[in-house]
Write a structure and sequence with these properties.
There is one protein chain. The chain has 2 domains: 4-119 and 275-286, Roll (Diaminopimelate Epimerase, Chain A, domain 1), CATH 3.10.310.10; 123-266, Diaminopimelate Epimerase, Chain A, domain 1. The protein has 6 helices and 18 strands. It has helices at 33-43, 74-86, 131-136, 163-167, 173-181, 221-233; strands spanning 4-12, 21-27, 47-53, 59-64, 69-70, 95-100, 103-110, 113-117, 123-125, 149-151, 155-159, 188-193, 201-209, 214-217, 246-250, 258-265, 270-275, 277-286. It has an 18-stranded mixed sheet that branches. This is Putative PhzC/PhzF-like epimerase. It comes from Ignavibacterium album (strain DSM 19864 / JCM 16511 / NBRC 101810 / Mat9-16). GO terms for molecular function: isomerase activity.
């Protein structure tokens, strides 16, 4: 007999439908891993989140791209909190924990925004020549105006001179995929600029994860959070304040405008991302 699986599709890091980054969310204790993979492939979104009840946290949480399972996903976590709130399983101004492949993650709702704490991360400066990477993005070294770092999350962070450079990338995804698969230093790439569309934003970024089956991710909390920390460590944030929510821009080039709130407390070493979300679809899968 077919099973009915309730599923929501939720746009995260936005309050407007059809913008931000879309994730599917399922709450089910009985799905096999193969069923999760099949559902994620069928939904064909950047990520599908699978919640289940847990004895070690509020819920278990797993994230799948159409290609494979990933260790961390910001927008699908924000979408999952929104899902639980809409299902009346958590309340406003509440705290919740998720057991994930990245450990226990703290999250919650505060001041009408969803938030999650990101795992600790550190950075290493890249000194090797990256001409091939630049070529794959259609840029040259004169347009790269920041030191380049790789995080322990295996994200490579490349800073460019302005929005024009960022928006006019000419990406050779075949070449990029070959470069990524030929080494194990980094898996995904964030390219950013400190020039922004809105005066109160800190940076604008784009994110590429072809190894995960995501050529370009519309809005990426797991990159925006570490970017704030990286900029803080380089003293590139004027009048930095602990726990202030800074705004990161992403998705405009894809007509999926999203805005990610990011905060950091240097005393407690706590990095968080914050955002809105809106449900655009509710239904059932028949499997």
């Amino acid at each position: 007999m077919p099973k009915l699986i309730e599923i929501f599709q939720i746009d995260a890091f936005t309050a407007e439908p059809f913008t931000g980054n879309s994730a599917a969310v399922v709450l089910n204790d009985f799905l096999s891993e193969n069923e999760m993979k099949s559902i994620a492939a069928e939904m064909n979104l950047s990520e599908t989140a699978f919640l289940s009840h847990s004895n070690e946290a509020g819920f278990n949480l797993r994230w799948f791209t159409p290609k494979n399972e990933v260790n961390l996903c910001g927008h699908a976590t924000i979408a999952s909190i929104h899902f639980l709130f809409e299902k009346n399983l958590i309340e406003e101004n509440s705290h919740i924990t998720f057991k994930t492949k990245s450990g226990i993650i703290n999250a919650g709702i505060s001041a009408n925004k969803y938030w999650m704490q990101l795992p600790k991360i550190s950075f290493e400066k890249i000194t090797a020549e990256l001409t091939d990477i630049f070529s794959a993005f259609g840029i040259n070294s004169s347009q790269v105006n920041r030191e380049i770092f790789v995080g322990t999350n295996k994200y490579l962070f490349i800073g460019v001179d302005n929005l024009q450079t960022l928006f006019n990338l000419e990406i050779d995804f075949n070449k990029l995929s070959k470069i990524i698969s030929s080494q194990n230093k980094f898996c995904d790439i964030a390219i950013y600029t400190l020039q922004t569309l809105e005066d109160d934003s800190l940076a604008h970024l784009r994110f590429f994860a072809p190894a995960e089956g995501i050529f370009e991710d519309p809005v990426t909390g797991s990159a925006a959070g570490p970017l704030l920390l990286l900029l803080y460590q380089q003293n590139l944030i004027k009048n930095f304040s602990d726990d202030r929510i800074y705004k990161m821009e992403q998705g405009d080039i894809l007509n999926r405008k999203g805005r990610i709130g990011v905060s950091y407390n240097h005393k407690s070493d706590v990095l968080k991302i914050h955002g809105n979300a809106v449900t655009i679809l509710k239904g059932n899968l028949i499997i």
